Amino acid sequence: MNIGVFVCHCGSNIAGTVDTEAVAKAALEYREVVFATDAMYACSEPGQAGIVEAIGTYALDGVVVASCTPRMHEATFRRTLERAGLNRYMFEMANIREHVSWVGKDKAANTRKAAELVHMAVEKLRRNERLQAGEFDIAKRVMVIGGGVAGIQAALDCADGGLEVVLVEREPSIGGKMSKLDKTFPTVDCSSCILGPKMVDVAQHPNITLYALSEVDSVDGFVGNFNVTVRRKAAYVDWDACTGCGECAAKCPSKKTPDRFNEFIGLTTAINIPFPQAIPKKASINANACIKLTKGKCGACAKVCPTGAIRFDQKDELVTEKVGAIIAATGYDLFDFTKYGEYGGGRYPDVITAMQYERLLSASGPTEGHIRRPSDGAEPRDIVFIQCVGSRDKSIGRPYCTGFCCMYTAKQTILTKDHMPDSQSYVFYMDIRSPGKNYDEFTRRAMEEYGAKYIRGRVSAIQPKNGRYLVKGADTLLGRQVEIEADLVVLAVGAEAARGAGELAEKLRISYDPYGFFLEGHPKLKPVETNTAGVYLAGSCQGPKDIPSSVAQGGAAAAKALSLLSKDKLASDPQVSGVKLARCIGCGKCESVCPFGAIEMIEFRGMPKASIIETVCQGCGVCTAACPQGAAQLRHFTDNQILAEVNALCL
Amino acid sequence: MSPRYAYYPGCSGLGSSLEYDTSTRAMCESLGVELVDIPDWNCCGSTPAHAVDHLLSACLAGRNLEIADGMAEERKLDGIITPCPSCLKNLKTTQRSLSDPEFRRKVEQVLGKPLRAGLPIKSVLQVVVEDLGVEALGRLVKTPLAGMRVVPYYGCIMVRPPRLMRFDDPENPMALDNLLRELGAEVLPFALKTDCCGAALGTVRKDVVARLSGRILDAAVEAGADAIVTACPLCQMNLDMRRPQINRANRSRHNLPVFYYSQLAGLASGQGEAATMMDKLCVSPRLLLNSLAQHTGERA
Question: Which of A139, A494, A535, B60 could be bridged to A391 by S-S, CB 3.0 to 4.6 A?
Fold first, then answer.
């Protein structure tokens, strides 16, 4: 076997702390290495051309590149080998950047370690086999989890591209946070007027199946062939029969039900349709508030329903959908401001969240668009807005900037002036972060045209005083304390990961950060991919985002799913387990440990044997560790290969 | 075995807040908490020392810690306690700054002996609320403070800075609230419970104290309180002794009395007005105590 070794400088990333030339020289001493050199950027076009040329000149059968992590460029170099006529699996990568140059400063030690890693790669490559990828069929369907604006966009784009889409939404209606907003920045468009038509499109699109009031229960399978079980929660209403007429809500006697859609400002009925533009426009019963379901008596809704759709005995239902790709668009939740004792910790009725204020501003909200204090229904005159409540604060475990609060606060001050020309808004801010198209102009308008008084500093306390609230804070530009008497205080609460985000990530086998936001495949280059093939991200589930960014990501995730599912078959990874029948004693240990159910027991000439279902196997290697006979071997990572690496390092 | 603590009364405890010290000692005795006075203790340095020199402040407080440590083993002490939040803050700050070896070396050089500073340091209030539980105090109640509407006033440093004091909620403490409720008083919500009264500025900037303490009195009256209850000698002095200054500056006529919580604990457990030194208060609680007695009499 003729092996070629290429040691990459990665500019100064590696060459700065590793003597790459010495590593290449050392490699020439390893068995079957016939050519070794160092290269400025092995992944660049001239770098790859150099590899192709060397394969021809030295009749190489295999190549080792010592450079960055295989996550970065393994696929790149495998393609290079294929262009030169070699099998793509006759390639090994030694990670001397993340594992060496970026973590150590001692050049001599780094150089020694890099040479040893190259030696291991060479010894493994000497035992590589020319593997061939197979093909498997795929389901040309996609599931979108979450029906906020990002999920809606992703679902519509996939459906328009010809894919069948299953859209799963936890709440009774799609629309997400955007459907609760009154207006949007920086154009002051009516939020439900621009979102509403998209929601209707979802309802009417022939390619979209909508499961509202549903959650993902479990996920099996792999890219191209996911089986997702969805729990359709009991609405206690037969949605096929319900016409959305609203007669039931009008007659429901349980009129003091907390109104989730209106952020608990105001009350609703136990059976309700959350808002006028809801999609699907179907009634559902809040089981905790329903008199019939809690006490056994009532049934007023069933009596008035013209289509007899009420089903008090309805149970949750599980449905399984086979899809080729999954787009997670589960959005965010709002920070619970009661953690801040200085803002009253939730004890003051007129200290509310910005989303509650949004519902007060909305014409379809509990006050029909009239701004009223929750405590006494009076119209406020002086309103204090406090920014960064649950953002940029290490002390409560939220060090990140939510990024859109500066903008919505500016919008709310503008809307406040429009609603009540005699009002005065005050905004306590840390910094104004408005780096978007027409964004900074918008915050200036709030100050200059709408007269919002911006005070740079934090609020130390809110205290009730004569039916109003004394807001004490610092003006750090003037270097003095300020006190403002307010009728209403609006907290710009930050975004946090959606409730249950971590559990969903584990079902989808994707990573999430310490705050519960899902991790993208690469922070720069794979913003909507994940490290699990076939699972994509859209919107705020990846990190707080405003509407335009969420819509853009929804479209981007849809494009990824469309391109994946544009093929009729996908190439299977041959780096999977295989069982040597002669060695297998049919003990079944591998079958019991396989986390993917990829092993079945078969009978071979009257003997029980294990057999790998190659399309299901994920190549994790648990079976090879469990097998007492060494019969189960992970291709490309056989026991012999790993031992050869260990020997290269230790002998 | 009953808990036993080294007791640091602080300078005001033997002077301006004698009623706090006396009623605290009585309360501890009836709760079975044994107090061992730190012999030959000195001033903790109060505000002036740490305002001009951290080393001086640490040496003053450190000497007291050293004496207490010296007798800890022999007297089987569970820790050091003090009724005064300001003394508490100085003792705890010193204990914390001694964890820096360089600083510790300097303090030991001044004091001329090695320091241990290992005993836990707490306020008397913390021991009552956290270690014994307010129910223990409740069991001693003979004449509940029924009908007395009070607002608890903690002052700024009883619970702050939170990572130093490690006691109760720094924004909305409830220790005194729960304790006073246990004594039978009606405890009203009080948003200014941790606001500053002006503290030591009373001597140099009377206007500041008049403004800040005036605000606390306004809020207490707005809340509908008959009395303010404190756990700090300086807060009590500003709100009580400086009342005429405050009223004059703000053109107000506030006359609600300001008790120490330990005085009310004594009163409720039947110790009487003389034992709890009610006559030491500058703003007379006479009317309130009379109506309380009447209330109790009516019920009996």
Answer: A494
What chain A residue is nearest to B195 in terms of C-alpha separation? A461
User: Could you say which DSSP state residue A380 is in?
Assistant: P
Cβ contact (<8 Å) for A463 and B192?
A: yes
> Domain B4-125's class?
mainly alpha
Please name which of B193, B186, B116, B182 lies closest in space to residue B160, comparing C-alpha atoms.
Answer: B193
Rounded mean pLDDT for each run of 10 residues along chain B, 300 residues in total: 92 95 97 96 93 95 95 94 97 96 96 92 97 96 94 96 94 96 96 94 93 96 96 97 96 97 96 94 94 74
The CATH code belonging to domain A3-125 is 3.40.50
For residues A298 and A283, what is the distance between their CA atoms, to the nearest angstrom? 17
Sequence-ordered list of residues with C-beta below 8 angstroms from that of A160, at least 6 positions apart, any chain: A205, A207
pLDDT above 90 covers what percent of chain A? 95
Pick the CATH number of A141-233+316-331+498-564 from 3.20.20.70, 3.50.50.60, 3.90.1720.10, 3.40.50.150: 3.50.50.60
Which of A474, A490, A472, A475 shows the shortest CA–CA distance to A389? Answer: A490
A285's tokens: 């019963």
At residue A30, the 3 state secondary structure works out as coil
Is there a contact between A340 and B171 if contact means CB atoms under 8 Å apart? yes
Q: Do B191 and A342 touch (CB under 8 A)?
A: no
The per-residue pLDDT for A597 is: 85
Express each pLDDT in B25-81 by its tens digit. Answer: 999 999 999 999 999 999 999 999 999 999 999 999 999 999 999 999 999 999 999
User: Across the interface, do B170 and A465 touch by the CB < 8 Å criterion?
Assistant: no
Identify the residue among B171, B174, B194 best suited for mutation to test binding to A, counting A beta carbons within 10 A and taking the highest: B171
User: What is the spatial distance between Cα B170 and Cα B220, in angstroms, rounded to a whole number?
Assistant: 20
- Those residues whose C-beta lies under 8 Å from the C-beta of residue A443, and which sit 6 or more positions away, are A406, A407, A410, A432, A434
A486 CB neighbours in chain B (<8 A) are none
Over the stretch A273-322, which tens digit does the pLDDT of each residue have?
999 999 999 999 999 999 999 999 999 999 999 999 999 999 999 999 99
- Distance between A378 CA and the closest CA of chain B, angstroms: 21
Q: What is the pLDDT of residue A618?
A: 84
CATH 3.40.50.970 fits A336-496, yes or no: no
3-state secondary structure of A210: strand
Residues of chain A with Cβ-Cβ distance to B219 below 8 Å are 463, 465
User: What does the pLDDT read at residue B300?
Assistant: 54
Contact yes or no for A558/A539 (Cβ under 8 A): no
Could you give the angle at which helices A107-125 and A639-650 cross, rounded to 10 degrees?
150
B66-B71-B75 Cα angle (round to 5):
150
